Amino acid sequence: MGGKRKMFIYGGIIGLIGAILMKLGNPGNMGICIACFWRDIAGALGLHRAEVVQYIRPEIIGIIFGSFIISYMTGDFKVKGGSSSLIRFVLGFFLMIGALVFLGCPLRMLLRLGNGDLNALVGLFGYVAGIFIGVQFLKRGYTLGKSIDQPKIVGFIFPIIAVVLLMFLVVKPAFILFSTEGPGSMAAPIIISLVLGAIVGIALQRSRVCTAGGFRDAILIKDYHFLWGLVGIFVFNLAGNLILNFSSFKLGFEGQPVAHTNHLWNFLGMTLVGLCSVLLGGCPIRQTVLASQGDGDAGVTVLGLVVGAAFAHNFGLASSAKGATANGKLAVIIGIIFVLFLAYSVVINSKKAKSQSKEVKING
Could you list the residue ranges that cross the membrane (predicted)? Predict the structure, then answer.
């Protein structure tokens, strides 16, 4: 099977499952959303008190299990880390802020488009703009350094977390919070969500589909291989929605579920997401998969996502159907400025390190 066709089919599996999960009860235009689902988990664990978005999403657990099992079976499970972990945490934090101002991760952006939400098109333009800016730093030598081998237990931390979350979901202890209304109360059946999540995890791990990587490679090296996976997500999700969710399909800007029409902040929120994703080397769903196959740096990034989600809801940064909040707008502006400064600092430091290395070689 040709590489492009293979990527298209892998993406199609993910897009179709997004439509199926929405049909089975997940929130509108939110069959799968890594940012929203980690946000819901943060709420269920009591890290924020927004009562309408608290639920341990089994899709996340399934993605972790699927990615872990298939990577272990195929030899892709490699335990590594130690590459600018604190910077990765901060980038994950700000990535989540941008996503919750837009109201969705890059994957949900594609799924929103697949059900007719044109606000997501504005977000797509912002996402590509952020990636384009990030690519300019890559061209100038931006790097977070090489990862090194870590103790094998590091690689099992994420799967263990998934097991604990599954136990909480099934047992429902009193200290775990579950929404009784709003998006957090809307969910497909647990077992089906777990199984479909695992299939998504396997597809993502085998294909290495990454929303940021697809656009980054197209811009940086004119390689469209991964972009075909994103096309597959959109096309199959659109077809799935037209067949399974036709009654909810609505082409336009107004009245879209869990979305707002503040175009500037949809654009800038996703600009921040795109910029952070390129600097991290992967979007939220790619980071989740990498963490599941032993990458400790990706695990730290996901921790940044979770803390960012809690911070966003505790301090009124997350948007709602009414639009972006004043705090959220300010946070996006601060995030873009800070991340640009951080990336510039890394580039300067990398150039100094190369210069010193050359001097040592010459003097030696």
Answer: 7-25, 55-74, 86-109, 121-141, 153-178, 184-204, 225-244, 264-285, 297-318, 330-348
